[in-house]
Amino acid sequence: MIPLLLLRHGKTEWNLQKKLQGRTDIPLCEEGIEFLQKKRLPAEFQDFQWYVSPLTRARQTAELLGGVDVEINSSLIEMNFGDWEGFSLKELHEKYGDAMRQNEARGIDMLPPGGESPRQVQARLRPFLKNLSSPAIAVTHKGVMRAFKSLAYNWDMTDNFPIEFNWGAAHLFMIDADGLPHPNRINIELDDKVS
């Protein structure tokens, strides 16, 4: 099995406003940059191969955490939220009402108009996972990580995730030969840089 350390990008202005970003290419905000400038990966992961979403916020995160020989991989791009991008969930509930709640109740098959479902995200992740041949780090997005968690924990996304997941921490999974992730250690805190 191949170790994969999963990281979410740092904060953006849209994160602070609780807006769905999707494929909109929002950079890190000042708060996100300042936080990452003070952090580094734990030493045990220093030799892992870096892979990153093509979106600016993920590439900036890898750079600020000291990523070297970082490879951009389109499989790691954020879930496409289609017509929902740029809105908060509160705004979407006000706009779509029952239709929004019914769509969310579909869990892994929730499908934003003009976007993609978590199940479709899993389908594009599987070849990337199956082709990993050495220990890796993936800097990606919350929508992708939720789809990944669904695979790893057999979670259908119709209810709350049963384990507390720190979005600012790293999460280690073992990837089997079929490209399926298995939880190893979650909520691994980033180290403080020594000044």
Describe this structure in words.
With 195 residues, the chain is α/β, with parallel strands linked by helices. The chain has one domain (2-192): Phosphoglycerate mutase-like (Rossmann fold, 3-Layer(aba) Sandwich). 31% of the residues lie in helices and 18% in strands. The protein is built from seven helices and eight strands, in the order E-H-H-E-E-H-E-H-H-H-E-H-E-E-E. Helix 4 crosses helix 5 (98-104) and helix 6 (118-130) crosses helix 7 (142-153).
Q: From the alpha-carbon coordinates, what is the Rg to the nearest angstrom?
A: 16 Å
The CATH topology label is Rossmann fold
- By helix and strand content, what is the structural category? alpha/beta
CATH class: Alpha Beta
Task: Tell me the series of helices and strands, N- to C-terminal.
Answer: EHHEEHEHHHEHEEE
Q: What is the CATH superfamily?
A: Phosphoglycerate mutase-like
Mean pLDDT: 95
Number of strands: 8
Distance between the termini: 36 Å
Report the sheet with the most strands, covering strand number, pairing sense and barrel closure: 6 strands, mixed
Shape, please?
globular
Give start-end ranges of low-pLDDT stretches: none
Number of helices: 7
CATH architectural label: 3-Layer(aba) Sandwich
Helix residue percentage: 25-40%
The percentage of residues in β strands lies in 15-25%
Number of domains: 1
